[in-house]
Amino acid sequence: MSSFKKIKIIKPDDCHVHLRDEKILKKVLRYTERFYQRAIIMPNLDKPIIDCKKAIAYKSRIMDLSKNTKFEPLMTCYLTKDTSLNELKNGFFNKIFIGAKLYPNQSTTNSKTNINNLSEIFHILELMQKIKMPLLIHGEENHFNIDIYDREAQFIDKTLVPLRKIFPELKIILEHITTKEAVSYIKEANSSYLAGTITPHHLMLNRNNMFFGGIQPHLYCLPILKRKIHQNSLKKAISDGNKNFFLGSDSAPHLYTNKINPLGCAGIFNAPSSLLCYVTIFEEMKALKYLESFCSKNGANFYNIPINKESITLIKKPSKILEKINIGKNFISPFLSGEILHWSIL
Ligand code: NCD
Ligand code: ZN
């Protein structure tokens, strides 16, 4: 018998992941499907997933490459000003879409949605509220004059608070939250209509890490890493066992040459280590008793889908994070590349 500590939990869902397409999809999918039973797939491909037909085709490209027959991709619709209400309604009722994703115009990778003011899509939000379709939001107020470190807090004040007054029963997931303002807003709302996902990198790092010993392009993501006070507030949020926070890794692979570039892309590819990072943080916070609800229950409950039946066992045994994934002559450098974590999966 090994003496390593083990934790068995219901197999988690990754409620926010970018799998990309074609040759990248082919190489990154295996990590997500190894650790996660289901994953909510972001629609910001170079040609975004804006309708049912595109979602069905993308889902089957994912399933065709999948080696885990039990893995289930859950698709999202990329909102634009022109999103058809019928498309959204049919997609949701026929379980093609689990929700729709709102990217304020130019807020991040592939987000030329032209949505500069939410009033431009009120008719869409009204429908979504009516049919109880979840709205996933990249919550950053994106204006050149707003300091990049303040964009999330300002989005809450200027956009989200007024929006929730108009649509109090719209189910909203504030994605990849990074600030103490977002944590308190979600906690105080204490509502079955508002939740937040939290990434492993925002739990493990703060903005100092991005400049440690030199600029670290692999740690550049959006929303950008914040001060330690915010990192601590996220760690506290998950260790209190609050049901309105759950796992969304925001694993976002980019080719090395697109990261190490004068205009390097935002995004951290963490799929090979995300679950191991979460368990590391829960252990550090002495909150392992809440690991399972954060990883495997809160998201499913919020999205109103069944809790998974499979389980996964985490074992306190060191593992080395793989160094790179070759993609033709290029490669992707994973989060914590080559580093040792104290946890593995059985
Ligand atoms: C994501 C990507 O690369 O698609 N990038 C990121 O920094 N997180 C988009 C996103 O979720 O913002
Ligand atoms: Zn993302």
UniProtKB/TrEMBL annotation:
Catalyzes the reversible cyclization of carbamoyl aspartate to dihydroorotate. Substrate binds at H18, L19, R20, N44, H138, L222, H254, A266. GO terms for cellular component: cytosol. Zn(2+) 2 binds at K101, H138, H176. Residues 45-335 form the Amidohydrolase-related domain. Homodimer. InterPro entries: Amidohydro-rel (IPR006680), DHOdimr (IPR004721), Dihydroorotase_CS (IPR002195), Metal_Hydrolase (IPR032466). Its cofactor is Zn(2+). One of its GO terms (biological process) is 'de novo' UMP biosynthetic process. This is Dihydroorotase. Keywords: Hydrolase, Metal-binding, Pyrimidine biosynthesis, Zinc. GO terms for molecular function: dihydroorotase activity; zinc ion binding. Its EC number is 3.5.2.3. Pathway: Pyrimidine metabolism; UMP biosynthesis via de novo pathway; (S)-dihydroorotate from bicarbonate: step 3/3. It comes from Buchnera aphidicola. CDD domains: DHOase. It catalyses: (S)-dihydroorotate + H2O = N-carbamoyl-L-aspartate + H(+).
